[in-house]
Each structure stands twice: as C-alpha cells, then as structure tokens.
C-alpha cells in the first residue's frame, strides 16, 4: 500500500465514524419516512403502516440509546490516535453516560407528575364549583390530567366505584413527584369527615404546590450560570486537543503513544473527573433534592 493510501485510511474511517454518530443523532427520520412510504405503497393504509413500522422499530430504538454514541466517538478518536485506549474509555463511558441520562429522565418524570398533581387540584376544585360530585370530579380530573404514576388506575377506580379514595391517593403519592397527593388525601378526608369545603382546601393546596414549583424553577434558573461554568471546564481539555491538532503538535500521538503522555493523560483524567464531580456536587447542593 502506498503512503498516500495508508494515510487516507484513518481519514476514511474517521469520516465513517462521524457519519454513524450523525446518523444516530438525527434520529433516522429519513429512513423512517422511507419505510412508511414503502409499507404504505401496497394495500396497507398509512396509519396501519405507521403502526407496523413503530412495532418493528421499537426494539431497535430501545437498543440504540443515546449513550451508545460514545462508541462511534471512541472509534473516531481511536482511529485518529491509532490506539485502542479510546475504545476502552468509550466502553467505560457507555454505562456512566447511560446512568446520567436515565437520571435526567427520572427528574423529568418527577416534574411531569408534579405538574399533573397541580392540574388535578385545579380541575377538581373547578368541577366542584360547577356542581359535580367529588367522586365524579376526581375521576374526570385523574382521567384528563394523567401522569400520576402506576397508582393512577387505583385512584380512578376508587372514585368511580366508591372505594377508599384517600388511601388510593396516598398510594399514588408514593411515586416520585406525586407527593402533593398526600395533601389531596388529607383535604378529602377532612371534607368527608368534618364537612369542610373540599374546593377551598384544594385551591390552597394548588397555590402551595405552585409556589414550591416556582421557587424551584427560580433557583434552577439562578444556577444556570454555575452549570454553564461546569460545562465550560469540562470542554477545556477538548479545546486544548483541538488547538494542538490545528497547530500540528499531534497531541493524541503524544498522549497515547509516549509514557509521559500516558501519565499526563491518566493524571489529567483523574483531576478532570474529580473537578467535575466536586463542581456538580456543589451545584446539586444548591439546587436541593430536585
């Protein structure tokens, strides 16, 4: 193989890896549209074709999670640096990144449940003032808002068939983010046993939950600058590598093929990880349990 051909191999491989990463990031929309058109070209109607494609693509989409983007990126760096060390780093990064992404999904799910509880309080209070019975109002609100977690069906069944509504609400409150349902259960119990106004209690509870949510969002907005600083510190080593490569210094070759470079890479990676962990811990403490 000639020198030019050998030099072109890493470039071609890097281009292929970058293309694979871009394909994963793009979400394969073009392939989805093409498959739907192919399936809809025969006697199958478009809605049935779309549903069929979703069933076929669901297992693949479940396996191709976003954390697997670490693999093509690691292959790209391994090709450019002509070393297997980035492959090992990519394999280690996949579960770590997946854990981080799943934590973000759980946090968004908690927020959705909190919004659903607030909406339920307002909906039930409005229906009660409109003349509906409490059980009917709760059933309609639970069916309309959704997002209350696995015990949502228990709440709807208790409201529909005369079950123990406060107990069902307390069970639903065990879901992360749905803790406000404990207050709904207390309001319901007081209204049933003592004859107090359920709508007024739910209005006060809705106001308290909204105030807590707004306080949390304001705090998160104030911490945006701190998170931006953490992200900037994390990207500084990458920027240094890019600048070194642009100047022709070959930083990847030095880091991956010399003892001094590998030592610097190990120490720098440990310091980078410790710094990011410490900064994230400080910001998380300021942000609170959410």
Automatic annotation (TrEMBL):
Keywords: Cell membrane, Membrane, Transmembrane, Transmembrane helix. Residues 128-243 form the Type II secretion system protein GspF domain. Its main location: membrane. The keyword Transmembrane applies. It is found in: Cell membrane. The keyword Cell membrane applies. It holds the Pfam family T2SSF. It is a multi-pass membrane protein. This is Type II secretion system F family protein. It comes from Streptomyces enissocaesilis.
